[in-house]
Structure formats: C-alpha cells, structure tokens
Amino acid sequence: MPIVIIDGKQVEVAAGTTILNAAREIGGETVPPAMCYYSSLDGSGGKCRTCLVEVSKGSEKDPRPMPKLMASCQTPVQDGMEIKNKTSERVLDARKGIVEMLLANHPLDCPVCDQAGECDLQNLSYEHGLAKSRYDFKRREFEKIDIGPYIKLHMTRCILCYRCVYTADQLTEKREHGILKRGDAAEISTFIENALDNDFIGNVIDVCPVGALTDKTFRFKSRVWYTKPMDAHCDCKKCEGKAVLWMIGDEIARVTGRKDVNGEVKDFICNECRFEKKEMKDWTVEGPRKIDKHSVISQGHYTREVPSHTPLLNKA
Ligand code: SF4
Ligand code: FES
User: HEC states along the chain?
Assistant: First the structure.
C-alpha cells in the first residue's frame, strides 16, 4: 500500500490509486478541483487540466520531482510520493490560467443561468479567476437547442469536458450525441438533430459541471438557493429511486440524483423519476438533505419540516 504526502498530510492508499482519489481520501482543501473526471464514468478525466498538481518528490525509489505539473486525475501514486496542491505557487498560477482559458468563451451569464449556485466553474472562478477578462475577440456563438423533450443545450456554456458523452454512452442504451469538430469549433451536438431520448439520458444534466445542459421542467423557476433540498425515495422499476427533491413551498420544483461530497452522483436516476414524478404522493420523503460540496447552496440550513401529508421516515 503506497504511502503519499499531499500538502503535508499523509495517506495510505491502494496501489494504482490516482493522486486525485488519494487527496479525496484526505478531503477538504487538499482535494484538487476536477471539472471533467467523474469516478463512475470510464475514460473520464484528462480533458480540463483543472486538477493539475506539483509532484515535488516522485517516489521513495526515485525522489526526483516531476518537471511538469501533472493531471492528478490521471496520475497514479507511487510509494513515498510527495504532492503539492494548495501549497504550490506553480499550481495556483496554472489554475488561474486554466480558469481564464475556460472563461475565454464561457458567457458570464450567471445571473440568469440555472446552474448558478451549483456550478463548478462559478466556484472555481470565484477562487482562482481574474476580476477582469483580457479576452478581446468575439466569443463563440451558438443557438440554444432543444435536445429532446426535457433537455436544453446552451453550447456557449459548454467546457467540452465529455462527461455527458460518457454518461450517454455508458448509462443509456443508445448514444445519439458527441463532440463534433475540433479546436475552437468543437461542439456538443446530436447526430442530424436527433433528440436525446432514452430512459437515463436526464443524468447528463447532473454530470454537466456548468449550465450547458439544463432541465426544461425547472428552467427559470427559481434560483437554486431559494429551493429546499429533501432526500426522498420511491418504488421505481427502472432505477434505485433515490433522489433529491428541490422544493418551493410544498411543491416539487425539480428532481435530481444525490451527489456526494465530491459533487458526483452514485445512483443515477431514470427520466420518469426526474421529469415526471413531481407530486408529493409519488415520493417518500426522508428529510432535509445536507449539501456537502462547498457551494452557496451548502450555506443553507434546511431545517424546514417535511410537508405533513407526506409519509415520513426521519422527521428532521
Ligand atoms: S455539455 Fe456539459 S457535460 Fe457535456 S461536454 Fe459540455 S460541459 Fe461537459
Ligand atoms: S479533472 Fe483532471 S483533467 Fe479534468
């Protein structure tokens, strides 16, 4: 079992563990941001470079530092490795550059974007971004597209992380979209304007780190921090039926999968649970959800009682 040190904290992990996952074992500030890696999606990672770290000691056998910053989601640990994340000036400087590049084409439309408050790029630019853009060129422009009955694509917000492509590929029976073209012309697109329409496709909304894929049943209904998240489950034949209900008063404004401390969904939910079960009678409410990931929505203290007509498991 390799023992590694990240930002001065020691952890022992299984052989083959990546630096990112070793840091996640430690948790907190030690964890590098990750915009494209998603642990349940094969092949994810290695696209966005937000997770770069400095390897100041390669291993016990070969202590030479690695000359370049390394993508922590792709680099396996070695015994005796020493890694700097927050404690490295080089990393912080590189991260600033990456945020600036991601924002070169990303519109700053957070005030009207449904993802605001739970957007990884918003959080990242708050921590590492410049207050002013140095980008003078015309930004990429795309029409907003309806891809299927429930999902809207804002291509201008996409950071080409590939998560939605892997989700559709690995979770649904038929993938009908991908990244077309290359370089600054690259875009997420469906094949010949096909709709994204299969039982689990709604999960692309949950894995998208920005507001490029939004839920048409929730768009512009509320800012997410005005809603109250509740854990709930239902008896579903297609998925585990474990979800979060985002409530406005006694009404279900939207339904999402449950995200862990790293912002990843483990139990993906089906379209029926996400888009069609919007009545309290469809769900058994467990209680208020604690939002772990650092974000404006985790600042809320959701102590509101579960609506009284709902069957309760734990009344918080
Ligand atoms: S639409 Fe979202 S999930 Fe898909 S590639 Fe773009 S940013 Fe990633
Ligand atoms: S999370 Fe590692 S490159 Fe994107």
Answer: CCEEEECCEEEECCCCCEHHHHHHHHCHHHCCCCCCCCCCCCCCCCCCCCCEEEEEECCCCCCCCCCCCEECCCCECCCCCEEECCCCHHHHHHHHHHHHHHHHCCCCCHHHCCCCCCCHHHHHHHHHCCCCCCCCCCCCCCCCEECCCCEEECHHHCCCCCHHHHHHHHHCCCCCEEEECCHHHCEEEEHHHCCCCCCCCCHHHHHCCCCCEEECCCCCCCCHHHCEEEEEECCCCCCCCEEEEEEECCEEEEEECCECCCCCECCCCCHHHHHHCCCHHHCEEEEECCCCCCCHHHHCCCCCCCCCCCCECCCC
Residue to substitute in 21, 24, 47, 159 for testing ligand 2 pocket (most ligand atoms within 8 angstroms of CB): 47
pLDDT of residue 304: 46
CATH number at residue 203: 3.30.70.20
Specify the range with the lowest mean pLDDT, choosing from 67-76, 158-167, 182-191: 182-191
In terms of domains, do 13 and 84 share one? yes
> Which residue, by CA, sits nearest to atom 1 of ligand 2?
34
Least distant ligand from the CA of 177: 1
pLDDT value at residue 305: 45
Tell me how far the alpha carbon of residue 221 lies from the centroid of ligand 2, in angstroms.
32
Q: How many domains does the chain have?
A: 3
Domain region containing 244 = 224-299
Protein residue with its CA nearest to atom 4 in ligand 1 = 164
> Which residue ranges have their beta carbon within 6 Å of ligand 1?
158-164, 188, 207-210, 212-213
CATH (domain of 40): 3.10.20.740
The predicted structure's pLDDT at residue 283: 97
Question: 282: CA distance to ligand 2 center in Å?
Answer: 38
Within-domain flag for 67: yes
Residue 142 lies in a domain: yes
Q: Which atom of ligand 1 is nearest to the CA of 163?
A: 3
Q: Tell whether 22 and 54 lie within a shared domain.
A: yes
Domain final position from 215, 233, 266: 215
